[in-house]
Amino acid sequence: MKILLSVATLVLGLTAFGGQAETASVEVKSLRQAEVSTTLSADAVPTYPSKGKAIERTFIHQPPLIPHKDSYSITTKKNGCLTCHSTEKATKMKATAVDKSHLEADGKFNNEYYFCVQCHVAQADNKDAIVGNNHSK
Ligand code: HEC
Ligand code: HEC
Description:
- This protein has helices spanning 2-21, 82-85.
- It is mainly α.
- One heme C (HEC) is lined by residues 61, 63-64, 79, 81-82, 85, 96, 98-99, 101-102, 113-116, 118-120.
């Protein structure tokens, strides 16, 4: 029994070693022995208009589209958008300051405008359509 066990350990050990040393690609087959492609194409990633460029507005008083990612966090403690777009920081951050309509009469930020992405949406070019559509004409 002891010998059998050590042989088994040896074989296992060798297989493990062999597996590690293996550098060539491994062929993967499904249970039905069909070829399985192991190379997956990359997910579509959104690309945003080049940095520092505003997107032309299509109608008057349109909330301008965001030409960059919109995933900056907005919490009760901190507004990720205001770190660049507040009247105090905008020039330094090379960003446009919030519109005057977003301010109180004394120039302080009006918190009614706190949740920026309620009105402003990011514009991105995607490689693929995000959602399919079979709308018939
Ligand atoms: C790291 C700095 C930074 C942060 C954070 C940031 N932005 Fe920007 N944003 C910019 C820059 C730079 C531009 C391009 C210059 C411009 O048009 O203001 C820009 C452009 C914009 C524009 C277009 C302005 C226009 O006149 O067309 C909007 C709208 C905008 N951002 C909204 C947001 C919102 C909403 C958030 C939070 C989700 C946010 N930004 C976070 C730097 C930032
Ligand atoms: C209730 C909707 C609303 C909310 C909320 C809002 N905005 Fe706006 N924003 C607008 C509209 C509408 C305009 C365009 C104003 C105009 O042209 O009359 C604008 C304009 C802007 C501009 C362009 C200013 C310029 O001089 O060209 C920036 C930058 C901006 N908003 C950033 C922000 C940020 C950052 C927040 C959050 C802190 C925010 N906005 C919240 C509606 C909103």
